[in-house]
Give the backbone structure.
Amino acid sequence: MIDKKNIPQHIAIIMDGNGRWARARALSRTAGHREGVKRVKEIVRAAAELGVKVITLFAFSAENWSRPKKEIGALMHYLHDFLGREIRQLHKKNIRFLNIGRAEPLPVSIQKEIRQAERLTKSNTGLTVVLALNYGARQEIVDAVKKFATEALASKAEIEELDEVKFGRYLYTVKLPDPDLLIRTSGEKRLSNFLLWQLSYAELYFTDKFWPDFRAEDLKEAIQEYQSRERRFGGL
């Protein structure tokens, strides 16, 4: 049974394995991504019902631009569909939407839809769904350093006063709690340049299931595993 008093407040997920799921069924990679979108809807709904406050989904990395143009086009199509249709459903359920990652070189139409979705849902007080698009943790840290350096040069920040807490204010995830739990599907056991700063003390959960096979019951299993661990944050 899940302890409702010990639900991870922020769950980050690396949604991996869409292509391999499709290949195992003699389907196109785009078919795998299409099925993956269905799991996003299911997992978001389950997270909201369980009382999770924030869920961050690694949807498209800064390195994914090296994939075939046809596959990128399909991903952008599914993203367009999600932003144009599913966001309204999230809004009705009091769910807030946020995006992290660099805007460029995402299509201008996608950038516009992201801004519209954030504006529409900004006052919602339920689950916060964060989509990491064109995201890379190293680029996030570099961008944060540039922001701080710009303020320091303009005498708006003091170098000597910079600490871990203040540095966090320059990250894409400002005002969001750090993840308590990271889930990665498909059997891979690495972070792949995802939330490197924020995941410092997160519990890591890896499953061999491909993302299209990851269901609400699997999310509950991951949370039960999380609850079985003792989090000491470096203490005794």
